[in-house]
Hints:
The structure is a homodimer. The first copy, chain A, contains ten helices and no strands. Chain A is mainly α. Chain A folds into two domains: 1-48, Homeodomain-like (Arc Repressor Mutant, subunit A), CATH 1.10.10.60; 57-183, Tetracycline Repressor, domain 2. Chain A starts with 6 loop residues before the first helix and ends in an 8-residue tail after the last helix. The A-B interface holds A 21-23, 25-26, 99-100, 104-105, 107-109, 111-113, 121-122, 125-126, 129, 150-151, 153-159, 161-162, 164-166, 171, 175, 178, 181, 191-192 and B 21-23, 25-26, 99-100, 104-105, 107-109, 111-113, 121-122, 125-126, 129, 150-151, 153-159, 161-162, 164-166, 171, 175, 178, 185, 192.
Amino acid sequence: MPRESDKRERLLGAARRLIHERGFNQTSLADIATAAEVPLGNVYYYFKTKQALASAVISRQAQDFAQLEQDLAKIGDARSRIEGFLSMLLVNSAAIAAYGCPTGSLCTELNKTSSGISNQAEDLLQHQLDWLSEQFVALGKGEEAGELATQMLVQLQGASVLAHAFHDQTLLAQQIAHLRNWLNGQHASMSL
Amino acid sequence: MPRESDKRERLLGAARRLIHERGFNQTSLADIATAAEVPLGNVYYYFKTKQALASAVISRQAQDFAQLEQDLAKIGDARSRIEGFLSMLLVNSAAIAAYGCPTGSLCTELNKTSSGISNQAEDLLQHQLDWLSEQFVALGKGEEAGELATQMLVQLQGASVLAHAFHDQTLLAQQIAHLRNWLNGQHASMSL
DNA sequence: GTCTATATGTGGATAGAC
DNA sequence: GTCTATCCACATATAGAC
């Protein structure tokens, strides 16, 4: 009876890193196998196809976001929960400036191919949007909550694109700071 | 003495369209040659390498933006010039929602490869940012002009990413409308 | 200038020994 | 479960006839 090994985890981790850094299409299974220190042929024991591996990577990303949600749920104040989300992005701002938003850039890439897994990446982004919307509802913005959530994600994605394009982590940090200020200006009514 | 043919133009046009639709890496020279109705082997008479072709595509995009700049320069009011820029994006919103911003998504993709031409795409985006900044200077925002320009491009790129990810042209149109309102609220002082 | 045929390399995926 | 060797499709790029 076969013993569990951590090869699957190593492959997943390497794939996640490399897909973020180089993009899905520019990452070969050989690259991933090498980085994970797993022989190429062995990859197919754990993942039927390259797409299946990518699919597992996106699922893992979704898991991580779900974990973050869970952690943030312990915070009583919705505004603080959103701030916690922004803080997480700030912590990752170096990687985002270097390689773009892992979710956003993957969506952009996969949406240009008929990969079938593009829906999965979309769903993850939609999930983040929904979460933000819920927080704004909790902040008392009934009608506007959806628009505010969209507004925030638009800015975060845009900031990620520009920070990546210009290799400028500062730009991203400033936009996050800007959003934090904007958020704290959101009380009863607000101007989009 | 060889007569001019429009093959180069056809190749450039096909490459531009296909690279926008499918991305650079997912577009083969065979695809481009077929779309342009030019035999594959003949491509290399006009472009030494695939990179050279992509480079020409970006140059063409830069040319087109320069042309737009020139047209908008005829407008006396800076606010109207910016609105003209937004109008152009609105006209193209279907294509942007379907395939992403041609400049932004190309930057994102090329920045993940060591293609050498990624600088060219960056420069084009930077050029757009500079143009916007100049318009805000003309609007009397000396100090803030750069930040306002960044703010606007961030939102446009973010809206493009989300509209593309969600296949939602409406999202992009709404964000453009939102920016138009925001712009018309920009008079003496403003709140970022 | 134009086009066919092809060289060369790489990537995803499989076969099958161990 | 693990790993080597390899198949096959496709992509960039070149050779060379016309």
